[in-house]
Design goal:
Blueprint lengths: L14 E6 L7 H11 L7 E4 L2 E4 L8 E6 L10 H18 L6 E3 L11 H5 L1 H19 L18
Parallel strand pairs: 1-4, 1-5, 2-4
Antiparallel strand pairs: 2-3
Length: 160
Amino acid sequence: MSYDKNLAAAEEPSKILLHHSGNAIDTVAGIISLHRSKWIDEGYDLIIHNGESFAGTGKKNNGTVNICMAGNWMRQLPPAESINELVRILVQQCNALGVDPSEIMGHRDVGKNNCPGSALHAYLPDIRARVADRLKKEVAEAKPKAKKEVKNVRRKKEDI
């Protein structure tokens, strides 16, 4: 995956970027406070902490949805409940925005950093596959099931 230089000009998000807080500050309030001390806002659309999602502002990010997984995921994966919440949110975002699961990336895929952590980044193919499977399942469940309708047809004597 490569960075689309025209991404900033996009009106609707076309990619979803995963981040991690990557430091000892792993509370939602701590993440927001740290970001606001360096920038005008935290820049995340969502923050996932201990299996729960919290809305951010994402004001600075045109063309992307930015999701932060609270914690440092360089050597280990986030807890299962956080991964499950991430997949749920990703399915929702892909559905709402028409984003293909292949466009779910780590921050490091578009910038020079180690975000969203080596362990979480290595797990991205599995996350994309889970999202794609859930999207396919939702589409299949939404399709109306074809009814086999058997009509009792009476023929006229002269048609036989």
